[in-house]
Amino acid sequence: MDEIVYFEYSAGAQALDPNIFKCKVDGKKILKIDYPDSNGFIAIHKKNDETEYVKASFMKFKTRKQ
């Protein structure tokens, strides 16, 4: 399966909400981004064993081959 390397999300519709948040796997701050689970949450694994869970109405991500 491909791995996610870049992720964008917003709580509102993209055209209406200018607050689009961006995450990029860089190996320093963000280590890994998981695919959405059965409830639609994406896990963003950060340094120091921190994990942020995101569920948004607008989500877009880019992948690359492992």
General description of the model:
With 66 residues, the protein is mostly beta strands. Helices cover 0% and strands 50% of the residues. The protein contains no helices and 6 strands. It is globular, with a radius of gyration of 12 Å.
Shape: globular
- Arrangement of strands in the largest sheet: 2-1-6
Could you give a short account of the major beta sheet? 3 strands, antiparallel
Mean of the pLDDT scores?
Answer: 88
Order of helices and strands: EEEEEE
Distance between the termini: 7 Å
Indicate the radius of gyration in whole angstroms. 12 Å
Alpha-beta classification:
mainly beta
Beta-strand proportion: over 45%
Q: Which runs of at least 5 residues are low in confidence (pLDDT < 50)? A: none
* Total of DSSP H or I helical runs spanning 4+ residues: 0
Helix content: under 10%
* Count of extended strands: 6
Task: Tell me briefly what this model is.
The chain is an all-beta fold and 66 residues long. It has strands at 3-10, 21-24, 30-33, 42-46, 50-54, 58-64.
Topology of helices and strands:
Elements: E1 3-10, E2 21-24, E3 30-33, E4 42-46, E5 50-54, E6 58-64
Antiparallel strand pairs: 1-2, 1-6, 3-4, 4-5
